[in-house]
Request: fold
Amino acid sequence: MANAHLPEQGVLRQLLRYEPTTGGLFWLPRGPEWFSESKYDSERVARWWNARFSGSEAFCTFDQKGYPYGFIFNRRTAKHRIVWAYHYGPISGEVDHIDGNPANSRVENLRDVTRQTNMKNKRTYSRNSSGFRGVYWSESLQKWRVALSLNGKEHHLGYFTAFDDAVDARKA
Reply:
């Protein structure tokens, strides 16, 4: 299901050029055969498309979470998924950004992982006041609460008076 609307690797290589130093994708010129289903003259549509898009950067609009995306064959697709499919073909799980930066879609920063592994590499939420995942301040107890999630279940590790002790417990 991960590849439901991704074009095949060969098709992506006919449509896009990948720039390895920046992770950028750029539209390649298209011939009339790409527009044969158009109700207009396919050669005219190809000339228009090439004049407007050929050589320009693709997948450079950002969503609210900072992921670049774009449209290919009228389907919205995340840039990192296109970069992975361009280089390696079908995706077996989820494409994860190793450094946690959703805008960094260079192929060496991407990996095909399970959902569980991807969730372990999540960024700390912006509303997290401690700065560490799994360490929370309990207002009612006036202590630091430590928990972790493993295999979809939350495991409570304890309450700590000292913040450093709570962080050490979470890391352990």
Summary: Helices lie at 9-15, 42-53, 79-88, 115-120, 163-171. The longest strand covers residues 143-150. The chain is about 25% helix and 30% strand. The chain has a mean pLDDT of 88.
